[in-house]
Design a protein that fits this description.
heterodimer, A: mainly alpha, f41 fragment of flagellin, N-terminal domain, two-stranded antiparallel ribbon, 8 helices, B: 3 domains, four-stranded antiparallel β-sheet, three-stranded antiparallel β-sheet, 10 helices, rod-shaped
């Protein structure tokens, strides 16, 4: 026997189920998400969270890497200025040591060399975003005085990207440019002094010092170039990683719109069919027949 | 002979009237979900010489399906349990995984990213401010989640006392009905089926409220502890508070606690749901405290731009209370960056702080997991229990509907069936009336003949 209550309950329950499924499908279509909260699919949620964490780190690598590219390019520019200054000093020294210049010309060359010295010191005092990049870890004060004395330290700072790659961001300026008694700065200080005193032999003696200093700066610039290449790679990889992680995360949590649309049509059809059945059953009551 | 014929016809009329009354009651209650179809128990009356002497109405009974009723009550208990559990669970889930996407894991990722960025520009006030901002957001997110979880659990438990009152009312009514049913059955009164229906409905309500079970005599118990014994209802009350809330039944010589695991229905689901929310709150607080402690330890080992050291980034209360950003932290004394005093360009301590992101076992409960992984495991673990409850809710609801349909097919009312029976009983009444008329005619004829 099918009681009237049982029959109407059966149809109501079936309608409720279809309506509930339809509601769920429409919610997914509206949000575009299959997994919005952990209980939708805890495994997918956990995997998507892990991917999102990687994506966040990769995205940060990309942004930070771009800033660091700017910093390293600035440092590279300083190295180029330093190389130019040292080459200029070599030319001045070559002229001064040629034996063809008189005392007045020596004085002029000394003034030129003094200017070159200031160019080199300016390169050593290069700043990026208000931080001195060649003062070791003393980034808040200019590492070189006007006379070329070094007040930075021997430290260096570096950044570690999410893949574990460390890139050096600051350097011990003394180890690269020397100071008023050594290296490139010391050689140019000596050159200025020799030119001012008109001591041709002393001028000549600065040439090998300048060649060595030039080599020293060029080596540091090459190392910086390697660091810059690494950062470029990190930024490129991070950008493509962000794209692929976004896709992977989307595959886990995004709704399959085409499939959902088909399911929605099917559910709507079922809903209509159930309403129609309910209506037909109501017409077949014995009460109507006996009336 | 004529007297016997009249009494036989009369008994037929009485039987048909009783059956018609039962059908009328059935039709009137066709849409009453707590009604069981009634029928009349008849017995043939034996005559003195072995011939039939009519029919006797023994009483009205209602259709019963005791095994189905028991299964329905069990499923009702389970459905209500899972409904209450998922209700608080979903509130908690929205707190730990808000649609805005501002999750604890995101705040932590941003904090670790800010440490990495600071390591690149340790002397930069903007980078230092970014660390303070990210740390503040992390602490604030943890506070908000903890507070929302606390509210969810306490709000769930605040609904407990009205439900316990309702259980006590239902239990009292059942005890009263037990007495009335016994009396009605003893007196063969016609209202016994209606009383049984009332009691069944109340027992179903108690199953849904607290997971109570009952025997055929209306004795109700919860987890083996009696709640209604015959005509006596025992008082149920709450005991304890917060996460340790449970229920007890008052007996003559004291009270007995019902183990939380034995509680079903809405009350069981509320307590289990609140316990589950308290549990995730405790797990998250513990994880956040562990992470903040690890960060503080590294932070305090470093030096600020002002040369100060041992400055904590977070204030960590005792226990697993929510953390807070240390209000004394500034861009100058933020020690995150440097490993020594007087080296503003040194970001090695910031690098060490950023490395905590990849350090396993920061939260001792998750020895093989990084801080972010531990948070994800806690949240997805909660998702598993909620998904399981939601799935159980759907399945139990479907099972309950099937059982109710099956029960209704046995004890419910079919109007078509009742109308057919009505015609049959009307015919029986008419036939019995004709028989009485015939007996009357025969008596009149005999009286006339004797008179002539």
């Amino acid at each position: 026997m099918i009681s009237d209550l049982s029959q109407s309950n059966f149809l109501a329950n079936a309608l409720n189920l279809v309506t509930s499924n339809l509601q769920q499908i429409q919610e997914q279509l509206a949000t575009g998400k299959r997994v919005s909260v952990p209980s939708d699919d805890p495994v997918a949620y956990a995997e998507a969270s892990a991917l999102n964490a990687e994506q966040s780190a990769a995205s940060n690598d990309s942004t930070l890497g771009s800033q660091i590219q700017g910093r390293l390019n600035t440092m590279d520019g300083a190295f180029t200025s330093a190389v130019n200054a040292i080459n200029s000093a070599i030319q001045t020294a070559t002229q001064g040591a040629s034996g063809t210049v008189n005392a007045s010309q020596m004085a002029t060359l000394a003034t030129q060399a003094q200017g070159t010295l200031q160019e080199l010191i300016a390169a050593g005092n290069q700043q990026y975003l208000n931080a001195y990049v060649f003062g070791g870890n003393q980034s808040l004060n200019a590492p070189f005085s006007g006379a070329g004395a070094y007040s930075g330290d021997t430290g260096s700072n570096s950044v570690t990207f999410s893949n574990g790659t460390a890139v050096q961001l600051s350097s011990d300026g003394q180890a690269i440019f020397g100071d008023n008694t050594s290296g490139a700065i010391g050689a140019i200080v000596n050159l200025v002094s020799a030119l001012q005193s008109g001591n041709e032999a002393a001028v000549s003696a600065t040439l090998p010092q300048l060649q060595t200093a030039l080599q020293q700066v060029a080596t540091a610039q090459a190392a910086l170039g390697n660091g810059l290449a690494m950062v470029n790679n990190i930024v490129n990889n991070a950008n493509s990683e962000v794209t692929s992680l976004t896709t992977a995360s989307g595959n886990l949590v995004d709704a399959d719109v085409a499939s959902l649309a088909a399911q929605e049509s099917e559910m709507q059809l079922q809903q209509q069919a159930l309403v129609s059945v309910e209506s037909d059953l109501a017409k077949e009551s014995l009460v109507d027949v006996l009336a | 002979m004529s007297v016997s014929l009249s009494s036989i016809a009369l008994s037929g009329i009485q039987a048909a009237e009783a059956e018609i009354a039962a059908v009328q009651s059935n039709i009137a209650n066709a849409s009453n979900p707590n009604y069981s179809a009634e029928s009349v128990n008849l017995a043939a009356l034996p005559g003195p010489d072995g011939d039939g002497a009519g029919v006797q109405v023994l009483g009205t009974v209602n259709a019963q399906a005791p095994l189905l009723t028991q299964q329905i009550n069990q499923n009702q208990s389970s459905l209500n349990f899972n409904t209450a559990f998922t209700q608080v669970g979903q509130v908690a889930q929205n707190a730990i995984s808000p649609s805005s996407g501002n999750t604890l894991a995101t705040a932590l990722e941003n904090l670790f990213n800010s440490f990495t960025n600071l390591s690149a520009t340790p002397e930069d006030p903007a980078a230092r401010q970014a660390v303070i901002g990210a740390a503040g957001t992390f602490a604030q997110t943890a506070q908000q989640i903890s507070s929302q979880l606390n509210t969810a659990a306490s709000s769930e438990l605040s609904g407990l006392n009205p439900l316990v009152d309702q259980v006590n009312q239902d239990a009292s009514q059942i005890a009263q009905l037990n007495g009335e049913i016994t009396a009605a059955q003893t007196a063969n009164a016609g209202n016994a089926p209606a009383l049984l229906d009332q009691r069944d409905a109340l027992i179903n309500q108690l199953a849904g409220s607290i997971g109570a079970t009952a025997d055929a005599n209306g004795n109700v118990s919860v987890g083996g502890i009696p709640l209604v014994s015959g005509t006596t209802a025992l008082a149920l009350s709450t005991t304890g508070s917060g996460a340790s809330t449970t229920l007890q039944v008052s007996l003559a010589d004291g009270s007995i606690q019902i183990p939380v695991g034995e509680l079903g229905g809405t009350i069981g689901g509320m307590l289990a749901g609140a316990a589950s929310v308290n549990n995730i709150q405790s797990q998250l607080n513990s994880a956040v405290t562990s992470i903040a402690t690890a960060i503080n330890t590294q932070q305090q080992a470093g030096y600020g731009l002002d040369g100060s050291t041992n400055n904590a980034l977070f204030l960590i209360p005792g226990g697993d209370g929510p953390i807070a950003l240390n209000p004394a932290i500034t861009t100058q004394n933020l020690a995150a960056a440097s490993s020594a005093a007087g080296v503003p360009g040194d970001g090695s301590n910031a690098t060490a702080l950023a490395a905590i992101a990849n350090q396993a076992g920061v939260d001792g409960s998750f020895p093989g997991s990084t801080p972010g992984e531990a948070l994800t495991q806690i949240i997805s673990g909660f998702g598993v229990s909620l998904q399981s409850a939601l799935s159980a809710q759907t399945n139990t609801s479907a099972t309950l509907q099937s059982l109710q349909q099956l029960q209704s097919s046995i004890t419910g009312v079919s109007l078509n069936d009742q109308l057919t029976q009505l015609i049959q009983y009307q015919n029986a009444l008419e036939a019995a009336g004709r028989a009485l008329q015939t007996a009357n005619d025969m008596t009149s004829f005999l009286m006339q003949e004797i008179g002539q």
